[in-house]
Prior knowledge:
By secondary structure, the protein is mainly α. It is built from 16 helices and 9 strands. The protein is elongated and about 125 Å long. One of its GO terms (molecular function) is heme binding. Its cofactor is heme. One of its GO terms (biological process) is xenobiotic metabolic process.
Amino acid sequence: MSLDSMILNFLKRELEQDISKTLFVFCCALVLIILAQYLIKVIIENLRLPPGPYGIFPFGILKLIGAEKHKSFMKLAATYGPLFSCKLGQQLHIVISDYKLIREIFKKESLTGRPRTLLCSELNGIGFINTDGKLWKDQRRFLHEKLRRFGMTLVGSKNTKLQNLITNEVDDLISNLSNETSHTVDLDPFFAVSVSNVICNLLMSVRFTRDDPKFIKFNRMIDEGMILFGQIYTIDYFPVTQYLPGMKSARNQIAENRREMFSFYKEVIEDHKKNFDSNNIRDLVDAYLMEIETAKLNNSEHELFEGNKHEEQIMQVIGDLFSAGMETIKTTLLWLIVYMLRNPDARKQVQDELDDVVGRNRMPKVSDLPFCPKTESTILEVMRMSSIVPLATTHSPMIDEEINGYKIPAGCHVIPLINSVHMDPTLWDKPEEFRPSRFLNAEGKVEKPEYFIPFGVGRRMCLGDVLARIESFLFFSSMMHRFDISLPTGAELPSLNGNPGVTIYPNKFSVCLKERELEALSDELAPLRAFGAN
Length: 534
Ligand code: HEM
């Protein structure tokens, strides 16, 4: 090789090396710029978020991924203030414990959105509680109107079907409990069947007895559902965990239970179709069948329920309302008993008031409610202290929102911290004390402050608040009117520490019941009648 070509080769090699070096440097710089831009964007976005703990990427705040989220959130609120943000896994949460801010944000239309989580998507976007947009809005209007028509209202309500069916269930409960006075009794299964019967009757004219195999199966599936959801909820924070073997079998079991529940609802719908009479709408299933008939007549069948399958929609709504309306009332009744066991003076005040207003020759009625402020304020105080749905149902803004100058990004989870509002010492005098009189004004009438929010606030607040008010008054006042309730000898007072599940429910406990006789009870006990039989 000549000297010339050696020099040429050397220069060529150097040039090639230079080009790859330059290319390498260029690529590195590009990656760095993109990374820096991304980091700046993340920092700016985070600066606009409400303050909060940083957490560890990719886990977020690990301690929040435990069961007692409402308590952990309350501790964080003490550090970061009434509006804070934090991440659970990669999911951003905005937690609000100032009731004015809660009211302000939940007024917004976009806050009626629900999170797009994997677990929600298993419900196929149907039903009521986990839907949003037009389907939710139409369903809310429909359900509101129909439930009012069945008597879910306190205005001008005299002996509505709803009141009659609750009274029948109360009578049945009292008569069943009258057979339990010789030994200790766990009230949970008694309340469970009575409260289930109210909601099942209202929805589909079905009632159960405690030993009915269908009821036992129903309850088993609900309990199992709670355990299974407890096992898999991490999927919403770490979607990758859905592929773990235990998760898959738990999800399959949930799907299987849902199929079984649906096959029961399906039977009910088929039965209703056979006896359907448009002049006698017996319950919610009939109201839906009527809606379908009307849509057929108007040739708008395909538009109904946003094009979702009609019967699947009805079945999911039944499931939604059953789960929202059963566990909540049962838990409230159990907490009422716990607080009455712990506060004998308050219990006596309730019983004395009922003796005065209702008298000893009949059972309480809804029309007694306005004249029983001590009883009502006792119920309200128990709702305040127990805050059984402390985090409401998760809302997720459909567009970016702003509050107090902070960004609330679309898709994040927004949580009103109800338990914190109910225990805020700046709002309630000595909030940890059980004091029903805090709900009474100077004239002794019930007054609820605007920061009493057990049913949530805004457009998606509880649909069953009136039903809850009627049921909790009738069941609780009747229990107090007919029984003296005490603890078995040597038993410890039930704890005020709740257990998180669908609601925050009390530890298991048993009681002794002693009848308080009525003078003319026999006239008051109407024969049991199913709602649908009317
Ligand atoms: C003491 C009893 C009850 C309490 C404390 C309670 C509490 C709540 C709370 C906090 C929410 C969430 C509100 C929000 O996210 O903004 C809610 C929603 C709901 N509740 Fe209740 N509830 C009770 C009883 C009932 C009953 C008896 C029914 C039966 C119809 C019911 C039906 C619903 C429904 C359907 C929703 C969802 C509303 C929607 O998504 O638009 N609740 N409830």
